[in-house]
């Protein structure tokens, strides 16, 4: 089951209707959720990402905003989702971002957080372009802090492997750049290193290459 399917299954099983996609990027998750009949609102601090999301998912309500200061009243959503986005919040604001997500939930709602771990084949090949070790660990520490403080509760997190198919080096670089265009110059400068790491860490499949990335999901409810 892919990540979008996991999230959709949880939301539909919980009877969620109004969902906030925090750090929606270009709208991939929003499009998936809207296609399942959910009412989706998305926020992202990048205006170009919001423009792309609006074009991709016109039925969603999207706006430019930071996760640490959500422009919504308390109790407005059945669920909030951080899909690979909490670690992109500035480290000093990560806990505040989680507090904000908990604040805008309706009674019985939950915050779903999916974060990539700082390990695994995909991470090792990506690391020369952008080493996210510190910020990924900071995101997990922020979650642990909120739980330890008794501000949220939830079941034990679940971890699985996401397999990303890549046709080759160019495809891998293009995928990194789609997330952040600023990575292009570094990726080009590290092309030789990336080629060697891709050869070392990628799994060979019938369709080409695959890179596994461990992901972890938390389900947080306000205490």
CATH class: Alpha Beta
Number of DSSP helical runs: 9
How many β-strand runs?
A: 9
Instruction: Briefly note the CATH topology name.
Output: Rossmann fold
Which radius of gyration do the C-alpha atoms yield? 18 Å
Give the structural class.
alpha/beta
Helix content: 40-55%
What spatial form do the alpha-carbon principal axes imply? Answer: globular
Tell me the number of structural domains: 1
The average pLDDT score comes to: 96
Q: How can the largest sheet be summarized?
A: 9 strands, mixed
Order of helices and strands: HEHEHEEHEHHEEHHHEE
| Beta-strand residue fraction | 25-35%
* Second-tier CATH architecture: 3-Layer(aba) Sandwich
Distance between the termini: 30 Å
Can you tell me the CATH superfamily? Vaccinia Virus protein VP39
Q: What are the segments in which pLDDT stays under 50 over at least 5 consecutive residues?
A: none
């Amino acid at each position: 089951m892919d990540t979008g399917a996991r999230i959709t299954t949880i939301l539909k099983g919980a009877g969620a209707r109004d969902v906030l996609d925090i750090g929606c990027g270009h709208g991939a998750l929003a499009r998936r959720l809207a296609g399942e009949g959910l009412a989706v609102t998305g926020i992202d601090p990048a205006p170009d990402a919001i423009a792309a999301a609006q074009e991709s998912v016109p039925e969603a309500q999207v706006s430019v905003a930071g996760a640490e200061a959500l422009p919504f009243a308390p109790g407005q959503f059945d669920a909030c989702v951080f899909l690979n986005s909490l670690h992109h919040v500035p480290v000093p604001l990560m806990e505040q971002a989680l507090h904000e997500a908990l604040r805008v939930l309706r009674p019985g709602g939950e915050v779903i957080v999916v974060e990539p771990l700082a390990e695994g084949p995909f991470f090792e090949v990506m690391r020369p372009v952008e080493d996210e070790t510190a910020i990924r660990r900071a995101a997990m520490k922020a979650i642990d802090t909120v739980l330890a403080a008794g501000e949220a509760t939830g079941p034990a997190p679940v971890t699985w492997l996401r397999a990303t198919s890549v046709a080759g080096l160019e495809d891998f670089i293009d995928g990194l750049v789609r997330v952040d265009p600023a990575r292009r110059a570094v990726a080009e400068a590290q092309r030789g290193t990336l080629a060697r790491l891709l050869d070392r860490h990628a799994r060979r499949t019938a369709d080409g290459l695959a890179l596994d990335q461990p992901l972890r999901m938390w389900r947080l409810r306000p205490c």
